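Justification of resources, computational component.

The compute hours requested in this renewal are based largely on the per-chain cost of generating structure records like the one below. Each record pairs the submitted sequence with a full structure-token output. That output is archived, and it is also reused by downstream analysis tasks.
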Amino acid sequence: MTDVKKERVTVEIKNRPYTVVADEESASHVRLVATLVNQKMKDLQNANRNLDTESLAVLTALNTMNDYLKLKEDYARLVGSLKRKED
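The structure output for this chain reads:
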């Protein structure tokens, strides 16, 4: 059994620090994810100036999940297409 070293990674989202515990290898991934979340929140806030932080967070989560589901569907279609070509 190997010991995976954990690292505390502090990121900033909407000018607020958040500390996340991550594997050493995934620290840069956590930073990337935080950057993308921060950018998505900025984009939504620019389009909807009157949003409070909670609403902004929920809309960011909804938009992100929508993007994820679309990519998942695209992936499933692509895999299905490849399997049909193999047959």
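The chain has a mean pLDDT of 93. Strands lie at 6-13, 16-23.
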